[in-house]
Specification:
By secondary structure, this protein is of the alpha/beta class. It has 2 domains: 132 residues, Rossmann fold, CATH 3.40.50.720; 178 residues, Rossmann fold, CATH 3.40.50. The strands form 2 sheets. Strands 8-7-6-9-10-11-12 form a 7-stranded parallel sheet, sandwiched between helices. The protein has a 6-stranded mixed sheet with strand order 2-1-3-4-5-13. Strand 7, helix 8 and strand 8 form a beta-alpha-beta unit. It is elongated, with a radius of gyration of 22 Å. It comes from Streptomyces roseochromogenus subsp. oscitans DS 12.976.
Length: 338
């Protein structure tokens, strides 16, 4: 629908994302909210091929993007000379923005904060399973009731967080509020000791974190310096019976080294991301009883994706009224974000 055609003073906004999910991200009620601030170009819905930029893109000042939106290359941006803001109703914008976006001075916002909540909740569930050695216990069940040495309590386990990202911080905050008595470690080169203490954790180097943690949970962005960060040497430092959780990016962990550690029975792993992604059919990690692989589902799913739309719509409202954007992404910060 073209909202408020009677208000030529309102900026034109276009929505470009996979048409199979746009109705979930931006349902009618959110489009009505948008109509108070912008003239929204018709939104394509259904299971048609991925949405492309509509004719109104040439007049658009605001792009509401999401999963499936093509990369904003110089050629694409040449077709939108009036574009001033991109509100991304999803998480990372690394695959969306090109240097041309920054060179044009286009404002960029991401709904990554809205997507972080589901990932934090998912990670907390995995930590609860991990501290109980759930996969190992389940695999032993058929052979008889597990011996007492395999039934240690979950309280008091040391949990190591790799990366003080918004999700890493959310996990730390939730664990700190819980009464499970976890000891919390954090490794992140951009966080000071004082800030780490305020997060309720102890700052340590990665090697020490691996040596001391019963559960290692990965929340770092994928950067050149974090690719393969958890390699054979680091994984080998995690104590026997330890657990690796990865809801960040698969390439942060050395897949071959992790496969070796899990195949030996020494470590458990809960992986929502892998390298490669997806794993090829028949990969050992898919059949090991002490490994759980899920298909990148920690973020917003189903009705949860509406929170991404709400966030983007609120950002449009803030931008139109001249308020600071809560999800603003800068060129400088992007290199350190997920």
């Amino acid at each position: 629908m073209a909202a408020r055609p009677d208000r030529p003073d309102l900026p034109v906004a276009v929505c470009v994302m996979d048409p199979s999910i746009v109705g979930q991200v931006l349902p009618a009620e959110l489009r009505e909210r948008l109509s108070a601030r912008v003239r929204l170009a018709p939104v394509q819905e259904g299971s048609a091929p991925r949405a492309m930029f509509p004719a109104e893109f040439a007049e658009a000042e605001i792009l509401i993007s999401g999963w499936g939106c093509p990369r904003l290359t110089p050629d694409v941006l040449a077709g939108a000379p009036r574009l001033r803001a991109v509100m991304h109703a999803a998480g990372t914008v690394k695959s969306l923005v090109s240097d041309a976006v920054w060179e044009r001075g286009i404002v960029v916002s991401s709904a990554a904060d809205a997507n972080a909540g589901p990932v934090v909740a998912y990670t907390l569930a995995l930590i609860a399973l991990a501290t109980r050695r759930t996969l190992t216990m389940a695999a032993r069940y058929e052979d008889g009731w597990p011996a007492s040495e395999y039934r240690s309590g979950a309280d008091g386990s040391t949990v190591g967080i790799v990366g003080a990202s918004r999700i890493g911080r959310g996990v730390l905050a939730a664990l700190r509020r819980s009464d499970a008595g976890h000891r919390l470690l954090l490794t992140d080169p951009y966080v000071t000791d004082d800030e780490t203490r305020r997060l309720g954790a102890e700052r340590v180097e990665l090697a020490e974190l691996c040596r001391r943690s019963a559960v290692v949970s990965v929340h770092a962005p994928l950067l050149p310096e974090t690719t393969g960060l958890l390699d054979a040497a680091m994984l080998g430092l995690i104590p026997d019976g330890g657990v690796l959780i990865n809801t960040a990016r698969g390439a942060i962990v050395d897949t071959e080294a992790l496969t070796h550690e899990c195949a030996s029975g020494r470590l458990e792993a809960y992986l929502d991301v892998t390298d490669p992604e997806p794993l090829p059919p028949g990969h050992p990690l898919l059949s090991l009883p002490n490994v759980l692989v899920t298909p990148h589902i920690a973020g917003a799913q189903g009705s949860e994706v509406q929170r991404l739309g709400r966030y983007a719509v609120a950002e449009v409202d803030r931008w139109v009224t001249g308020e600071p954007l809560l999800g603003a992404v800068t060129r400088e910060a992007l290199s350190h974000l997920a």
